[in-house]
Design goal:
By secondary structure, the chain is an alpha+beta fold. Helices cover 27% and strands 27% of the residues. The protein contains two helices and five strands. The strands form two sheets. The chain has a three-stranded antiparallel β-sheet with strand order 3-4-5, covered by helices on one side. The protein has a two-stranded antiparallel ribbon with strand order 1-2. Helix 1 runs antiparallel to helix 2. The protein starts with 5 loop residues before the first strand and ends in a 10-residue tail after the last strand.
Length: 131
Amino acid sequence: MAENPVDVLENLDDVLDYAHHALRGARPTLEDRYVATVFRPSLTAAPTGIFAVFDGHGGEATAQFLQDELEAALTGHEHFAGDLPKALRGACAALEARVLERQRGGGGDTSGSTLTMVVIRGRRGRRGARR
């Protein structure tokens, strides 16, 4: 019988509620992974949410690696604070290069993963913002 884990994650300062659900289905293991996090990059910054789904293929190793590394790759990117689209592209390109490097290094892992990601950044002090 398929497992149906449901996790409801707490919010940040009552800013955003979110939940996620994963279904293993008929496969022996669940190869998919996710990231769901909301944080403030600094004490004065607006909340930022990173939500990502890694659809693992041919094993879970790559999806797990991406789950473990995504947040640091994105928030550590030089353009994260100012140019979010550029940071997204750069972080994804860097992670892809690391995955390919790991696979070229041997060890037999040939798994892969797709990534669907949404980053939501709150706006503070903008004119015309709804309250």
